[in-house]
Amino acid sequence: MKIIRYPQKTPLKSPSAVTIGNFDGVHKGHQALIKQSLSAAKTQSLQSVVVTMEPLPVQYFKGRFEVDLITRFKQKARLIQRLGVDVLCVLNFNRHLSQLSANKFCDEILDRGLRAQHIVVGHDFKFGADRDGDVAFLSDWCRRKNINIEIIPPIQNQQGRISSTCLRNLLKAGEFRLAKQALGRHYSIVGRVKHGRKIGRNLGYPTINIEFNKGGNPLHGVYVVAIEIEGEWYQGVASVGYNPTVGGNAKRLEVYVMNFNTEVYGHFVKVLFYKKLRNEVEFDSLCALRTAIETDVQQTKQFFAEQTGEICEPRL
Fold first, then answer.
1. How confident is the model at residue 316 (pLDDT cuts 50, 70, 90)?
2. Cα separations (Å) of 161 from 44, 212, 236, 254, 284?
């Protein structure tokens, strides 16, 4: 998959089938849009293009760390690539783009930049300055340009419409089984291992640390997880929060990995979430914190002992 950033220096060399959205989470609703654009591209001999924003518009207006991201950009790009997309077009959402009218967005990006011949969007798609463009506006523009357009209705499951907002709420509540139904896969966080403050090591429970340096995350608490390190899966206990007992002030993911004692700083790891054990608590002492971690570890061992089958993530 080729990744291009707007404004690209030259237009795409061949016409395309395009779908547009934030795609935070790449859930089943997003997958339906992308798969429909892939189908159109194959039928009409077009290249498939997914258009997304970095940062997300809501991050631009509210601030990066005021928004809980389901998937960070690199993980989102990998998930989109796995679906078989030819081109990922990343719009740098800045002051210029935020003030671009719906008509200019269509003319400059969809027509001249991406040479769109087929466009797939969701039924509630909005775009342009002050969100003045909608599916009715886009449909009229496509008709005038002789471009095909498909409007995809909402994708439903047993809980109702699948959306990023609904998914964030499920993750906040620790409803990972329901989140998996909306995603089509286990919820996971992928990130690079960074140096921490080594407090877990001093407690006898060294952790792998991943910082949320591109935005927030809907999780907060202590969880049963599986972690993939260099192609191997391990059981673990994860904490997502601020570490109030030791004066932490930045939200991060820390994983105690069972039966693992190798340093992997700088490596990318994938953490799959299965169950929430408890909320993050500020303890009176490090001794009380150690006791709580011991309980978390025992509950995690019991959880995996009761499971059957593999713990690794199924493919999309």
1. very low
2. 30, 28, 32, 32, 43
